[in-house]
Amino acid sequence: MNRHAGTARERELRVVLAQLAAAPRDLRANATTIRDVLAGHPDAELAVFPELFLCGYTGERVAELALTLDDPLLAELATACAESGTALAFGFAERGERGERDASYPDSAVHNALAIIDAEGRLAAVYRKRLLFGAEAEAFVAGTDDVLGTAAGTAIGALICFDIEFPEPARRLALAGAELLVSVAANMAPYLPDHELASRARALDNRLPHVYVNAVGEAEGLRFVGGSRAVRADGSVALELGAGEEVAEARLTVGAAVDPAVDYLRFLR
């Protein structure tokens, strides 16, 4: 753990919050948007896009939109990261493969996933959403593992939307050594207040900065409410976006030492 005085490596991280509406079911258009944002923010170290941004949030015929990890479109995004020198986190539908779990694992399995690509164009991590919300359980197979990925010189704990409404996933990531929490979301009306509170609480619970990027626009009768934010390790908000499309850059301190008196993880039994 690098949370305490003497072991911390405090530094400032420049992060782009890309609160954008995805083009429904148009992977190519959304990949182009990602590349354009990377090219437009050459000084950023990390850019974060919403849940399922690459295909647009949907639970309909998701197998048609799902990509394996060797898909050329993901390779193009990796190349864009290397060219811009910026790491990337974005949501996509991932096609599972038999043999990952056991012989009964269905060939048609699709995960609601978060990819983290580092600034050299390497796939640093893929997190598969563990806590599926509502009808998502009919479209996606839940993941089983917590995931840390290293990008922008930072150990990133990955979360997706509903995950942040529970203290345990973020806590496990903090205990595993996360220096930054990154959550991608497609949070919809009327749940804006839930995530306003949860995004701050998960930062404060674990004394970790938290980048939360939500979707905007409408899809399949849902209205996404934005409210993306960069939260400091003390739960205060460094940057908060509104309800419309916006791309903004925030600066967060990562790796800072934590005052032992309020380092809540110390008190876990």
Summarize the structure.
The chain has a single domain (11-258), classed as Carbon-nitrogen hydrolase (Nitrilase/N-carbamoyl-D-aminoacid amidohydrolase), CATH 3.60.110.
CATH class placement: Alpha Beta
Supply the CATH superfamily name.
Carbon-nitrogen hydrolase
The CATH architecture assignment turns out to be 4-Layer Sandwich
- If helices are DSSP runs of H or I spanning 4 or more residues, what is the number of helices? 5
The general outline is globular
The class by helix and strand makeup works out as alpha/beta
- Write down the domain tally: 1
Main sheet: strands, sense, barrel: 6 strands, mixed
Total strand count, please? 14
Low-pLDDT segments: none
Can you list the strand order of the major beta sheet? 5-4-3-2-1-14
Descriptive overview:
This is CN hydrolase domain-containing protein. InterPro entries: Aliph_Amidase/BUP (IPR050345), C-N_Hydrolase (IPR003010), C-N_Hydrolase_sf (IPR036526). Keywords: Hydrolase. Residues 13-260 form the CN hydrolase domain. The chain has one domain (11-258): Carbon-nitrogen hydrolase (Nitrilase/N-carbamoyl-D-aminoacid amidohydrolase, 4-Layer Sandwich), CATH 3.60.110.10. Helix content is 20%, strand content 30%. The model has no long low-confidence stretch (mean pLDDT 94). The protein is α/β, with parallel strands linked by helices and 269 residues long. Strand 10 and strand 11 (222-225) form a beta hairpin. The chain has a 6-stranded mixed sheet with strand order 5-4-3-2-1-14. The chain has a 6-stranded mixed sheet with strand order 6-7-8-9-12-13, with helices on one face. It has a two-stranded antiparallel sheet with strand order 10-11. It is globular and about 50 Å long. The protein contains 5 helices and 14 strands. It starts with 10 loop residues before the first strand and ends in a 15-residue tail after the last strand.
